[in-house]
Write a structure and sequence with these properties.
Elements: E1 12-19, H1 22-33, E2 36-39, E3 47-52, E4 55-62, E5 72-78, H2 82-91, E6 95-102, E7 107-113, E8 119-125, E9 142-149, H3 152-163, E10 166-167, E11 177-182, E12 185-192, E13 204-210, H4 214-223, E14 227-235, E15 238-244, E16 250-256
Parallel strand pairs: 1-4, 5-8, 9-12, 13-16
Antiparallel strand pairs: 1-5, 2-3, 3-4, 6-7, 7-8, 9-13, 10-11, 11-12, 14-15, 15-16
Length: about 260
């Protein structure tokens, strides 16, 4: 891995989805985003990497048949030392659920949850650096990750302790939203939504994917067997909608502001 490909610790570097029906899920996202697929590391079980214009942008794996877990997208944050980060997670009040373990020669991973219960991954890259860079505004590419939780303050302290994130400028009055900065650059955000947090999901990381037309993409989600949870609307970030795939994995589609 070149130095140019290396992500600074705390930077989102990969997104991965675990589902029960791998083939049907590939069909859904292939139709929605134009993804193609290639096999991933065999150590991860049935797992594929999604390609956009030949570049790896996301992963999809099959859940163990004996586990009644819901499908969900997981954001991975970069680390120079997955074992040390896992220990920092524990010391900070989080939980380590899986790992640290090697994914062949690709790298080393951990699956954790923060003190609010939001699940995230840790990725120490070796041969595989994570999401490949694509042109800005490319439909089908992951473009942002946001943590939705009850309130931001305590959760931001956790990520600052574990990854060294610096909080960004204060949000406008009445908004509980904090940008997480790495090297002075915003890489993710934490939004406190209070009682609006879905009871069936709790605190969770949300991945945003770029689309050319959120209204058309939302209709396509429904045609493919998914659901629209929040209809397209305009906001500071652009035009967004919250949707779920046929297995219930939730994500945001966005036409970024300025496009």
């Amino acid at each position: 891995m070149t130095e140019a490909a290396r992500r600074e610790p705390g930077t989102p570097c990969w997104v991965s989805l675990m589902v029960r029906g791998l083939d049907a899920t590939k069909d859904f996202y292939g139709e929605l985003f134009g993804w193609e697929f290639q096999p991933g590391p065999p150590q991860l079980g049935p797992y594929v990497r999604a390609l956009l214009d030949g570049r790896e942008v996301a992963g999809i794996g099959r859940l163990p048949a004996d586990r009644g877990l819901p499908g969900a997208w997981t954001a991975y944050l970069a680390s120079d030392d997955a074992d040390r980060t896992a220990e920092s997670v524990r010391c900070g009040g989080g939980t380590v659920a899986v790992g640290p373990l090697d994914a062949g020669d690709a790298g080393r991973l951990v699956i954790c949850s923060d003190p609010s219960g939001a699940v995230f991954g840790v990725w120490q890259a070796a041969a595989f650096p994570g999401t490949a860079p694509v042109a800005e505004g490319t439909p089908g590419a992951p473009v942002w990750n946001e943590l939705l939780t009850h309130e931001s303050e305590s959760v931001v302290k956790f990520y600052r302790t574990v990854f060294g994130h610096e909080p960004g400028p204060a949000a406008p009055a009445g908004q509980d939203r904090v940008a997480l900065l790495v090297g002075g650059r915003p890489v993710a955000s934490v939004r406190g939504v209070g009682t609006a947090l879905p009871r069936d999901r709790g605190a969770h990381w949300m991945t945003w994917f770029e689309v050319a037309d959120p209204d058309a993409a939302a209709r396509r989600v429904e045609e493919l067997g998914g659901r629209v949870l929040r209809a397209p609307e305009d906001g500071a970030e652009g035009r967004t909608a919250t949707v779920a795939d046929p297995e219930g994995a939730v994500f945001t589609i966005v036409r970024s502001a300025g496009r």
